[in-house]
Design goal:
12 helices, mainly alpha, two-stranded antiparallel sheet
Amino acid sequence: MRTVYVHSRGPVLSVLLAFALDLLGEPPTPLHPVVWVGNYLKAVRKRWRAETPSEQLHEGAGWWALGAGASVGAGAVAQRLPGGWIMQGILLKPLLARRALFAAVDEVHAALAADNLPEARRLLAWHLVSRETSELTACEVAGAAIESLAENLSDSVVAPLLCFRAGGLPLAALYRYANTADAMWGYRTPDLEYAGKVAAHADDVLNLAPARLTALCTLLVSGGRGLGVWARDRRNTASPNAGHPMSAFAGALGVRLDKRGVYILNVGGRMPEAADLLRALKLARLTFALAMLFLVLPWKKHV
């Protein structure tokens, strides 16, 4: 067996094109594949009829697998379309959301900086989190925005690009489907505890590498300032992945991220404030830049 370096220009150029197109914003809603996935997940959930935990598990798994197969198939077809790396870059773009994520955090910052806490809460709930925000303090709103920025930098930016480099459009499409399914089904509520279990675990598996790559890049660009917090707190979250980038951000920024009654990251840090969102955005940009460098480097292949 020998090792060769694979540096096909096509995938790299597709990644760079997708990033460039992301600077222009999101495609129209009717054309957005994530919207199609969301509509599918909503529609099939209305068809669930299982009552026992075992039946719910199998029903949810079956519908999840059907959507996963369709996503991989669509990605495979898309990869064979004429146009080469240009077409692949165009089709990859809707699977990531860097500009939208950064803009959402910036909106929350603007509201907090203007001392408009009700608006900051509204924007946080609208763009970034699923938790109840109506009683959050300004520090908690800032902290939740930083948490979401760190987690979604991995989930919505690094992960789809990494999956594309590893497996082309089929794997990138599968990842985006799995991540969306987890966001809609992956909750421990009475109706989703079992039906959404496969969706939650599939997302966990697909995010193992992206979450750790994102955390590593954060630690490197921060000069290792978050290393101790990451080493201690990365397992504090229920998710096996979210704690990695979030704890790295908490340590690098020197702030305490506290989700009431759920977890605390960097317990010795100070409470975050509006200005920390600008620092977090700068850290996210540097983290992404380093991750992009990794994504466009030659990759080893054993033959």
